[in-house]
Amino acid sequence: AGITSLLGSGVYTAAYPLHDVSSIHLLYEEWANYSVFYKYQPIGLVRKYFGEKIGLYFAWLGLYTQMLIPASVVGVIVFLYGCATVDDNIPSLIVVVVSKSQFQL
């Protein structure tokens, strides 16, 4: 009940594969595999297989992700500094003590 039987019965006169299996396998090995998350994206292969618009989208997404790395490092440092110095902040301790003494839960 596959394409071979349809070709044999004359329903179709010819059939051509839409995708090159070697390109799919290469994209899987170089791009869609969890073990290669630290490598650069093969933008040329993505563009060749999916087209210009999709290739440009993934190129932009890769650049955007790389540009977020410094901001995330700064954010983690600021967060850790805030966690380490939260008990030393006298104005915030006064606000907490005053607000607890004024309101009953």
TrEMBL record:
Q: Main localisation, per the record? A: membrane
Give GO cellular component annotations, separated by semicolons.
plasma membrane
Any idea where this protein resides?
Cell membrane; Membrane
The Anoctamin transmembrane domain extends over: 46-90
> Mind telling me which InterPro entries this protein's record contains?
Anoct_dimer, Anoctamin, Anoctamin_TM
Task: Give one GO term, molecular function aspect.
Answer: protein dimerization activity
Claim: Membrane is one of the keywords in the record: yes
Positions of transmembrane segments: 57-82
| Keywords associated with the record | Cell membrane, Glycoprotein, Membrane, Transmembrane, Transmembrane helix
Q: Does the keyword Ribosomal protein apply?
A: no
Q: How does it sit in the membrane?
A: Multi-pass membrane protein
Q: Where is the Anoctamin dimerisation domain?
A: 2-43
* Any Pfam family matching the protein: Anoctamin
The entry sums up its family as follows: Belongs to the anoctamin family.
Name the record gives this protein = Anoctamin
Q: Lineage of the source organism?
A: Eukaryota, Metazoa, Chordata, Craniata, Vertebrata
